[in-house]
Specification:
561 residues, alpha/beta, Rossmann fold, 11-stranded mixed β-sheet, 6-stranded antiparallel beta barrel, 18 strands, elongated
Length: 561
């Protein structure tokens, strides 16, 4: 007769110390199995049953079968026929979603957890409580690269771990209502990754200037007021979004801009050849297009437009030419766009820009935080599109040799569900979401409104870190994006406390409810709002401070901290 499966769950080191291992506590038996769901009836234990037999939704239990121990998550606890208050015993039912099993595997015959159930339970199989060793075996598999981000809700003594390769290679999303702790949760994940991987390449698109203070000593902080992201790095779609108007002349302006850019690129390359900067003409220079990745001057673009205007009669539709020229001159003159259009000279500094953005080499600063709070809203789409596209193109041309994580804070703002808005950025992020895994580039999306996020991009995220969500619409979107038998866990989203989260998907061994670790005071994302009750206790601004703010506002085009 084979040894009962529950005996296999006994921690072997306790036996070696000479301390007999107590068998797992039986609390019920299976009465129904239907696909991935099972129902067990609680066995009568008397009024003196210890408190640790209390079973809560989301807890992990196990069912012993002849071949393995099947583990499942509690989804409901019911009493179909409640008795009176004086009755000692009442019939209790536990509903479970079966998620995996613990089997003996490998040459060392170790107990190993694996997803999927090859030996389903049957009627009468015992239902057992899990102990700390079972939880560790399931949620912290020793053979995989993991990082600890918190503790399990079921047992705070057990670490909650994320599987690094599955989390990063298959994209992940962090969702939660305002104040639920999204920024701190993301910071915890990134800090733990950086603790173990000193040569990571992480780029954070920070729209609120929160994260530079969270990675002191390990961050390359980029403020676009003192960083040059030259316009010639833009592809033609991005140039069109930045330089053309959105009225009825857009098509005509786009056609004129295309001809002008090709002219300007050819002129720049011809002059470079004459100076000897280019020793020989490359094939792409021989066949120049608007998408050829080579520098050019806006002055040559304007010269081309002027030349065309000189050839046209006023009755031949000069308005698109004049509108395009005015738009370019306005962008060049506006100090808010100095980071893109303000350079007096054009030089091919593409390698330096990519090295700065993506930390090549990292020089002890493996994470880049780009402050986008100073970028005017009308060009934010273009800036994020350029950075996202450069990240993808670099991954492709390096043939996956530079694994990179691109973190998109407030992703719903620039990758919205509305297909008419933020076209270039949405396309760039969608390309990373669909194809990035092949080239070693990953997305981390952070949003308080998953219902407003592009559903195509959201559907590509294989791991979800869900903090408190109050909106029914947002909860429904998360349920629709969940491909596991853990939908019942998501019913707890409105009830989660601060720093609590439900994590499910490929980045964890099984869906789990956790409490994120506390961050040190000097590693917390910056909060620009100290709170009304604190701010209103004393005067908080005088006229001189207000005038200084107005001065900076006028210089940068928007208020920043």
């Amino acid at each position: 007769m084979s040894e009962p499966a529950y005996k296999l769950q006994t921690p072997p080191f306790r036996e070696r110390r000479g301390v007999p291992a107590a068998p797992p506590k039986r609390i019920g038996h299976i009465v129904s199995v239907a696909g991935p769901k099972a129902v067990a009836v609680l066995e009568k234990t008397g009024a003196q049953a210890p408190d640790h037999t209390r079973v809560q939704i989301g807890a992990l239990l196990k069912i012993t079968t002849p071949a393995s121990s099947v583990v499942g998550l509690v989804t409901a606890v019911t009493t179909p026929m409640p008795g009176g208050p004086d009755e000692e015993e009442q019939l209790g039912l536990i509903e479970l979603n079966l998620a995996g099993e613990v089997v003996i595997a490998g040459p060392d015959r170790r107990l190993t957890f694996k997803r999927g159930v090859t030996s389903p339970p049957s009627i009468g199989d015992p239902l057992l409580l899990v102990d700390r060793h079972d939880l560790t075996r399931v949620y912290a598999p020793p053979a995989l690269a993991t990082v600890k981000v918190g503790t399990l809700y079921q047992d705070p003594a057990v670490a909650a771990r994320l599987r690094v390769d599955d989390l990063l290679s298959k994209h992940f999303v962090v969702v939660g209502s305002t104040g639920s702790g999204k920024s701190c949760a993301l910071t915890t994940v990134l800090q733990r990754i950086l603790d173990d991987y000193k040569h990571a390449h992480i780029v954070v698109l920070d729209v609120h200037n929160e994260y530079q203070a969270a990675f002191k000593g390990r961050v390359e902080a980029i403020n676009l007021n003192d960083f040059n992201l030259p316009f010639w790095l833009l592809n033609f779609q991005e140039l069109t979004a930045a330089l053309t108007t959105s009225d009825e002349h857009r098509d005509a302006e786009t056609e004129i801009l295309g001809e002008a850019v090709v002219y300007a690129k050819k002129r720049y390359n011809d002059q470079a050849m004459a100076r000897g900067a280019l020793l020989r003409k490359s094939p792409e220079q021989a066949l120049m297009t608007v998408e050829t990745p080579t520098p050019f001057r806006l002055s040559d673009v304007i010269a081309f437009i002027d030349e065309q205007l000189g050839r046209l009669e006023r009755t031949q539709g000069t308005l698109p030419y004049r509108k395009l020229k005015t738009r370019i001159e306005t962008m060049v003159a506006d100090q808010r766009y100095n980071f893109m259009f303000g350079s007096l000279t054009v030089q091919d500094t593409m390698a330096e820009i990519l090295g700065h953005l993506f930390r090549v080499p990292s020089d002890g600063k493996p994470i880049t935080v780009i402050d986008l709070s100073v970028v005017p809203a009308e060009i934010l789409d273009v800036v994020i599109s350029v950075i996202s596209r450069l990240a993808f193109d670099l991954a492709v041309w390096s043939k996956g040799g530079l694994p990179t994580l691109l973190v998109c804070e407030e992703a719903h703002r620039y990758a919205p569900a509305n297909e008419r808005e933020f076209g270039p950025t949405r396309q760039a992020l969608a390309r990373i979401a669909k194809e990035g895994r092949k080239y070693g580039i990953s997305l981390a999306l952070v949003t308080q409104r998953p219902s407003d996020l592009d559903p195509t991009i959201l559907s590509q995220c294989s791991t979800a870190i869900a903090l408190r969500l109050s909106s029914d619409r947002d909860q429904q979107v998360m349920r629709a994006s969940t491909h596991e038998g853990a939908l019942d866990l998501l019913d707890f989203l409105p009830l989660l406390g601060d720093r609590e989260a439900i994590i499910l998907g490929q980045g964890v061994s099984m869906p789990m409810r956790i409490m994120f670790d506390d961050l040190q005071s000097n590693a917390v994302p910056r909060n620009l709002n100290p709170g009304f009750s604190k701010s209103w206790k004393a005067p908080n601004m005088d006229r001189a401070q207000l005038e200084h703010i107005v001065s900076r506002w006028r210089q940068s085009g928007r208020e920043k901290a």
